[in-house]
Amino acid sequence: MSRVWVEGGEIRVHHEPGTRRHPVLHPGPYVRLWVNDEPVVDTRAIFPGDEVRVEVGQEEQPVEVQHRVTPDGMHCFLSLKGGRSGRLRLMDQPPAQELTLVAVPDRSVPRSGPSVKDLVTYLQEEAGVRVPIDQDALQRLVAGLEEELEVAAGTPPGESEDGRVEYLVPFSVERVEVTDEMTDAVDYLDLQRIPTVTAGTTLALISAGRRGTPGSDVHGQVVEAREPHQPVLRPGPGTRMVDDGRAVVATQAGRPAVQGDLLMVLPTYTVQGDVDVESGHVRFDGDVVVLGSVNEGTKVVAGGRVTVAGSASGATVRGRLGVRVSGGVVGSTLAAGGLAATARALVAEINPMLLALERLLASVHYLKQQPAYQSGRSRRPPDGVLIKRMVEMKFRDLPGLVEQFHGRSEAFDEVDVGLEDVAALLHKLLVAPGPMLLQEIDPLEEAIQQLRVAAYRLEADAATSADITVQHVQNAKLHASGRITIRKGSIFNSEVLAGTGITVHRGVVRGGSLQVFRGEISLDEVGSPSGTRTCLEVVEGGSVQARLLHPNVVVEIAGRRFVADTLLRQVRFTTTQDGELKQGVFRTPPPE
Exposure string (b/e) for 433-460, b if CB count within 10 Å is 16 or more? Predict the structure, then answer.
């Protein structure tokens, strides 16, 4: 295809041999076109051998001067258009089959119009500029190198420094990073750390803002620096402002939280959904609220109360001050009162072991005071050897007690009394080859002291009353130092242990065992028509009552036992002053 183009202000034509399409030209404004000396008004095809001539006219271009000041008054722009005596040139264009010839201003011709001095006067009188003017920019405008340039600028004010709040404690749950240096087995569900603070902890520091120095605009007017942002931090629950409002401290222990400008220390940690493998275990010193469920393999351990809006399935839930699950409990372990629910049993197990350990310690000290030991200074055996000898001679049962205690340590609540650590330490020191590794007796003395402190704490826990309230229980363990209440469901094949009472309002207790240390067991229906073995026990004193009690249900109060062989209705068991088991009738309370 043939082509026509403009290069260097000249028309170039290429005719493709044999083509039937020839290039076409259109004269545009200010362009006169001749082909073979004949003027072309509209359109003309160019054939081989045609002589093409073009002439570009002139256009009057009066000088137009305009200024523009930005809304903030800090920048002044000047534009200068026209003023080239109307000279035009043919604009270069790439090859095309059809082309319109266009005339553009010839910028190679110096612009005629105002001088730099004239423009300075214009800016000062017309635009009101009172700051130094950029002479170089004016020169470029006059030369026609630019259409618009910034010609004056004000002095900006100094930058204001905003006030700020420096938080000294974390607010979000942190996740522990697993590294190759960790030698112990890693529980990947126990890697999150919920931030907690104690009373008196400084939570945040507040610094006031500072205003920058003033500036001026292009008109010479003063421009003030922006008003600095002053931080606002309000003390919320559990916090107080001190140091003339420059710091916020915690007034109670709990989880620090910030909401907008409100800083708080909350005694409650809320899990927005489920506790599962994604969230990991939840351990918190205060109350814990779970808005979802506690799922398989996870733990919720709280120093306060635990409230679960959903259910607990294959999980562990412990709350020192109580546990409440709105849904059912299946294959889970619930404990209220820390270790208080099993404190008496643990104290009964720990006290004989503690007594044996203290006697072992006294025996070793006695041996070391004997003249034979004191005189053989160069041949004195390590303390571990003495401990091993005394265990073999006088305390043969002690390693077995320690082994049994250590075997149960996984069920201990390490948040409460640290029994798990104590059990591990005693097992390391006293179970073979532990004693032989000891050079000094100090580690054993420290372990015994820790066990003694734990025993004191357990005695206190035994007096703590914390309740459990759930909807339904199946194949689970429930231990509470206070009462256990099943609101509208049943208990199937579960171990239920309470300090002061167990109540099932409307449901069946079938299989497993229910035990109360001192108080009342009040049930709706117990056992099954097929004789499912179900045990009800009050350890010291109290009563057992049920609306229906099926055969093969065992009732035991203060060591006195009764096994039902027929279906009993509205039955109540108590003990007489002589300690004998007494069977009577009770009235079912009206429906709630």
Answer: ebbeebeebebbeebbebbeebbebbee
* Residues 325, 307: Cα–Cα separation, whole Å: 6
Q: How far apart are CA 321 and CA 288, in angstroms?
A: 11
The rounded distance, in Å, linking the Cα atoms of 403 and 409 is 10
> What is the residue-level pLDDT of the chain in tens, covering all 592 positions?
789 999 988 999 999 888 888 999 999 988 999 999 999 999 999 999 899 999 987 766 677 889 999 999 999 999 987 665 557 889 999 999 999 999 887 766 655 678 899 899 999 998 999 999 999 999 888 877 788 899 999 999 999 999 999 999 988 776 655 445 544 444 545 556 778 888 899 999 999 899 999 999 999 999 999 999 988 889 999 999 999 889 999 998 888 888 888 999 988 888 889 998 888 888 887 889 999 999 999 999 888 899 999 999 999 999 988 999 999 999 999 999 855 555 666 677 788 888 888 888 888 888 888 787 777 665 777 888 888 888 888 888 888 888 888 777 655 554 444 677 788 888 888 886 777 777 778 888 888 888 887 777 676 666 668 899 999 999 999 999 899 999 889 999 999 999 899 999 989 999 999 999 889 999 999 999 999 999 999 988 899 999 999 999 999 998 899 999 999 999 999 999 888 999 998 876 555 5
CB 35 within 8 A of CB 50: yes
| Paired tokens of 208 | 């006031």
**Residue 209 corresponds to which tokens in the numbers above?**
């803002």
